[in-house]
Amino acid sequence: MNIVDRLKPAANLKVLITGGAAGIGAVIAKAFHEIEAQVYICDIDADAIERIKREHPGMHGGVADVGIRQQVDRIMDEGISLLGGLDVLVNNAGIAGPTGSLEDLVEAEWEATVSTNLNSQYYVLRKAIPFLKQSKQSPHIIAMSSVAGRLGYPFRTPYASTKWAIIGLMKSLAGELGPDNIRVNAILPGVVAGERMNRVIDARAQTLGITFEAMRDQYLEKISLRRMVTMEDVAAMALFLSSRAAANISGQAISVDGNVEYL
């Protein structure tokens, strides 16, 4: 097989994506759908799921709050049944969490961030791994972390804590599942252009008492390339990691961030 062919994901991949109806998850879902993979998405937003299914006939989806184990169990059983197995898991679901100093955080907001961003990864993995072990298509797990999973992030401690934990989970699982030929990697998006990032910038600007524009400029100054990345950049990395060209890439935390120097 030549190098160009190795860059193409295997045919008929069975892909499950959490948080797949909006944002980065939706762009990843559409990218896999475009290469004719079988795709199942879950999301908390029922309307968004129906919209993406209408726009992309053949894509499957169901509603779940991934921070609730019973809902994850239901959606994983449904998704894997519809797909007829599982080759690629993209554990993408997550929330931004609160912005503010640690001593001022509301306990419920901390717990919600940990539940959605970290506990959900475990809930999904425990159901997915037995089926990934049966896959003959170079099975692969993508854990969605963040540049905040390798840098400190003042005033965003719940979010950063979960994203660091995801790296530890990924590294440990890569060693645990390697003998079963299951690869595990994490993608660390940086400052991703879009509505969600605008909300993050606005919340941090209010916390620091500066304008949105000034806060946005501060973010850009911390990036070596002085620009935000796109959701398509992240989706392209997900496709590459699921291709034959990435057959020996596992246990890696791969940043797609233009080189964020600090947060």
What does this structure look like?
The chain has 9 helices and 7 strands. By secondary structure, it is α/β, with parallel strands linked by helices. The chain has one domain: Rossmann fold (3-Layer(aba) Sandwich). A 7-stranded parallel β-sheet has the order 3-2-1-4-5-6-7, sandwiched between helices. The longest helix is centred in the middle third of the chain and has 26 residues.
CATH topology: Rossmann fold
Beta-strand proportion: 5-15%
Q: Superfamily at the CATH H level? A: NAD(P)-binding Rossmann-like Domain
Envelope shape: globular
| Helix/sheet category | alpha/beta
Average of the residue pLDDT scores: 95
How many individual helices?
A: 9
- Supply the CATH class: Alpha Beta
Describe this structure in a few short sentences:
It is built from 9 helices and 7 strands; from the N terminus they run H-E-H-E-H-E-H-E-H-E-H-E-H-H-H-E.
